[in-house]
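ENTRY TYPE: protein
CONTENTS: sequence, structure tokens:
***
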Amino acid sequence: MKKSLLCFTVLALSAMLFGCKTTKTKGSGIKGKSAKISTGKRVVEDYQGATFGSEIPEWVKLVGEGQYSAEVLNPVMPGVAGKKVFVVTNRGKNLSYVEQWADLVKVETEVAGIMERVAGKSVEAEMSGADDDQLKETLDMYRISLTDVRLSGLEKIASYWIKVSVLDNKKNVTDSFYEYYAVWGMDNKVFKNQLEQALKKIDETATESAYLKAKVTAEIMDQVSDGKAVIDVD
């Protein structure tokens, strides 16, 4: 068994359905002679494309290792160049439900949550030493403003799934589930415009306020690179 397979399955064992732009997607070199791939305490029982002898795509391995940036994915996944990339994962017993929940619910709520967390950390860092009331007021102002980011133009680039069984020390199956990843993207300029529009109402007449808004905007653009959240769906 190849070392890369062990590394991938321990870190990733993830899953995604192909989007419409995957005809030139680079493979990872990982595939089984049948759908089943033994991986120690976990076994991949099935994966997308196994029926046709397809290998697991390279981008699945990268995402499984936590590498979500457009710069990393661009060489192996068409359609991510110039885009803000978001990755949403889900896990459960029913593949259709897992896919629908991730695609219809999780992506927007998770991206919104990440923006709020990044903004909060930025505000707290810049306002270190401010009194509690002033800090709370500023945090609330940014939190409310960020709810207006519409994420218009967000599109699914690709997705993939894998069915996994978990084994105990006696090789008995203790659990079985599907894991699913969806990779979404939005044009960087569109995302920035929507972000700036949402924060437009925040007062920036004071030098400190203008600097803080610019700081928050820059950090959201830099750090909000995925909407990763694993949710167990029974």
